[in-house]
Amino acid sequence: MIPIAALQDLVTAASLDFEPPAAELDAIERELPLIQAQVELLDAQIMTLDRPASELDVRRVRRARNRVMATRRDLTNRTATVQPGGAA
Questions:
Q1: Percent of the chain scoring above 70 in pLDDT
Q2: For the segment 20-47, what is each residue's pLDDT rounded down to a tens digit?
Q3: How far is it, in rounded angstroms, from Cα 82 to Cα 1?
Q4: Cα dihedral across residues 14, 19, 20, 23: positive or negative
């Protein structure tokens, strides 16, 4: 019987306990309101999966969808005014 063994080194990173860079953390923090609005929309949609949607459910989903669109608009407007590299 011929033993089968890996002839190459592992492909994984040497250290898996590294922190994300500050730029990625800042990007996540800027997008957090949008993420929260999307979670609220998803929650509202999940509530209507197992039963017919009532008028209250329809309003809840509509408000959540509008909140996502408004937050996305605000985030887009905010990032469009900020120049990369700190230029004014």
A1: 73
A2: 889 999 999 999 999 999 999 999 999 9
A3: 65
A4: negative
Place of tokens 């923090």: 29
Q: How is residue 87 written in tokens? A: 């230029």
Query: Which tokens go with 29?
Result: 């923090």
From the list 79, 87, 66, the residue with the least C-alpha distance to 30 is 79
- String of DSSP letters for the chain: -PPP---S---S-S---PPPPHHHHHHHHHHHHHHHHHHHHHHHHHHTSSS---HHHHHHHHHHHHHHHHHHHHHHHHHHHSPGGG--
43: which 2 tokens?
């929650």
Location of structure tokens 């459910």: 57
